């Protein structure tokens, strides 16, 4: 097709050369029209899914749905791709109600609408029913600082339990390239090779859980996710959590945003560098990324039955701190450690707490 004469060549979409470019892609600076932007975004997610053989025909997969932009875009794109390329997957929305008034109750209303819009089943599991504590009551006990430690551990287990209820063994989340770049940077700064390996993997499974996790938006920029949501007029909830975010992650984010300004590819560069470093990590360190190696032996938490290498799972250990009115103890030892997996420092802290309680140390 010859380019339209009324649009100057410099303003044409660089992909179809037939329409005016409306979007400058944050990832590449490529100038695209709306249709080409949407199809390029979808094609990239499809390429990620196909190149990693993420889904199996006939399987059911839960989408961790918070009502925010990332998981809403994830649900919308997966529905589109599943229909377009006939993946043969049944997607279900799985939401965790952390019990945060004025935030999660509102965002869950969005997820309920999404379930109707996308024709997907929705299951909601709450902290209150699983743990007897809502995040509002945790924050009342602990204060705003450090509450993310509790929330992260509780959410991880809640997603597993929700998936188990659905008879599903694969949960996809809306983690995007910006999230992964932040985690890569944090793990590099901490010299934490096992976690570096884990955070760069598109799919993670561990002996601590029968449920695999994956991140189909791993290479999608946050800014492009927002653009996709806006141009597709998706119904999503845009308020940030009312409780404070992790300070270390916030600093990593600020640094990456500054780098992105001078070098748009910086986010993807960091993700790719993380992957390259990860390939060089000795397999022994890779295996310990789950801190749950087969050698240590997995059993069921003596209290709740969740898989763990210790007597109590991490959530029950944290609940002990809350119920014994020592909530800060868990956070102090966990400070700066990403919530994705059980950390030995938390365990050491708990051991210290036990000793302190027994009057052995102060
Ligand atoms: N309450 C929840 N219920 C179900 N899944 C969740 C919940 N909170 C987070 N997730 C999953 O974890 C991913 C990353 O969560 P994070 O808290 O970093 O939120 P986010 O980056 O703001 O994502 P979103 O825009 O989807 O809220 C989400 O995209 C979603 O898939």
From TrEMBL:
Identification of the protein by name: Cytoplasmic tRNA 2-thiolation protein 1
UniProt source species: Choiromyces venosus 120613-1
Protein localization: Cytoplasm
Gene of this entry: NCS6
GO terms, biological process: protein urmylation; tRNA wobble position uridine thiolation
Amino acids binding ATP: 64-66, 70, 96, 174, 179
Gene3D superfamilies named in the record: HUPs (3.40.50.620)
SUPFAM superfamilies on file: Adenine nucleotide alpha hydrolases-like
Function description: Plays a central role in 2-thiolation of mcm(5)S(2)U at tRNA wobble positions of tRNA(Lys), tRNA(Glu) and tRNA(Gln). Directly binds tRNAs and probably acts by catalyzing adenylation of tRNAs, an intermediate required for 2-thiolation. It is unclear whether it acts as a sulfurtransferase that transfers sulfur from thiocarboxylated URM1 onto the uridine of tRNAs at wobble position. Prior mcm(5) tRNA modification by the elongator complex is required for 2-thiolation. May also be involved in protein urmylation.
Known pathway: tRNA modification; 5-methoxycarbonylmethyl-2-thiouridine-tRNA biosynthesis
Phylogenetic lineage: Eukaryota, Fungi, Dikarya, Ascomycota, Pezizomycotina
Range of residues in the leader sequence: none
Similarity comment text for this entry: Belongs to the TtcA family. CTU1/NCS6/ATPBD3 subfamily.
InterPro entries: CTU1-like_ATP-bd, CTU1_C, Ncs6/Tuc1/Ctu1, Rossmann-like_a/b/a_fold, TilS/TtcA_N, tRNA_thiolation_TtcA_Ctu1, UPF0021_CS
